[in-house]
Amino acid sequence: MSGHASQPRLLPIPANRPPWEVPAEAEILITSPSLGWKDAPSQRPDGWPRALKWIQLSSTGIDTFPTWLLEGPMVTCSRGLSAVPIAEYVMAAILENEKRLSENQIRDAAQWRPQVLGLVAGKTIGLFGFGTIGQEIARRARAFGMTVMAHRRVMPHESVADVTFQPTLTALLAAADYLVLAAPLTSATLRIINADTLRHAKPGMHLINVARGPLVDHQALLAALDDHLLSGATLDVTDPEPLPPGHPLYTHPAVRITPHVSYSSEKHFDRLADMIVANLDHYLAGRPLTGLVDMTVGY
């Protein structure tokens, strides 16, 4: 796109060209992590960022892009786009863990026997990260009668209804029946779930990771599961993705892995298009953009 005209001109990047080789006259770059950024050079390419003034990412996280992409023009991400489907995924994981529908399905009258199921109401959910995803999870958890606790990098100045904020991650771990990781991947959160932090976990805690795989030290997680410090883990993200064949997390009886699908819904791409078009309208009108990335904090 070129200029602040009422009818911006589209300049597609050919599929056989890397996504950072934008046309020289392009002012806006709309891109996705899946468009070849994993092969990006570690150093800033010659001439970058050319004429670019704004980069819109289709993803919420920025950790899959090279740092030089984020150090030039203004960058916005799709923050909040997948908050609702991810929150629903989290509640589905909790309900499956307590009600065990797949485990208790019967195919014959001989399988009919009484079962004692878990109860979601009264359990405590701990949210590590309280952005749009954490807030959507909190709304649904409260509706199920759960006690909601959270910890975030910057504590809110005002109270949030029915949410108790813990001052540290270890305090959150000690209180939570379910710990949900909903924080961005930064240098401060890398491997933050490790042997030291897991020692503070409430006995029988269930870990749910819908953020990024590298937040978790997988060897420490396996040890905590084998030592029965944790009762289980639901992992929608891993490190790497996918895990290599034969990794012990695949076959651990207390672990459920899904292939990074918690964000998805039948309306995902329609909502993404609406978000990008709305930001484009703001840009052309000179209004503030949504989802602005703050490089000082890494999201």
What would your notes on this structure say?
The chain is elongated. 25% of the residues lie in helices and 14% in strands. The relative contact order is 0.13. Strands 6-5-4-7-8-9-10 form a 7-stranded parallel sheet, sandwiched between helices. Strands 1-2-3 form a 3-stranded parallel sheet, with no helix packed on it. It is α/β, with parallel strands linked by helices and 299 residues long.
Task: Record keyword descriptors for this entry.
299 residues; alpha/beta; 8 helices; single chain; 7-stranded parallel beta sheet
How is the secondary structure organized here?
Elements: E1 28-31, E2 54-57, E3 74-76, H1 83-99, H2 101-104, E4 124-128, H3 132-143, E5 147-151, E6 163-165, H4 169-175, E7 178-181, H5 195-198, E8 205-209, H6 218-226, E9 230-235, H7 248-251, E10 255-257, H8 268-285
Helix pairs in contact: 1-3
Give the low-confidence spans.
none
How many individual helices?
8
Helix content: 25-40%
> What portion of the residues fall into strands of 2 or more residues?
5-15%
Structural class based on helices, strands and sheet pairing: alpha/beta
Biggest sheet character: 7 strands, parallel
Envelope shape: elongated
Give the topology string: H per helix, E per strand.
Answer: EEEHHEHEEHEHEHEHEH
Distance between the termini: 25 Å
Task: Please state the CA-atom Rg, rounded to the nearest Å.
Answer: 22 Å
Describe, in short, the structure shown.
This protein is α/β, with parallel strands linked by helices and 299 residues long. The protein contains eight helices and ten strands.
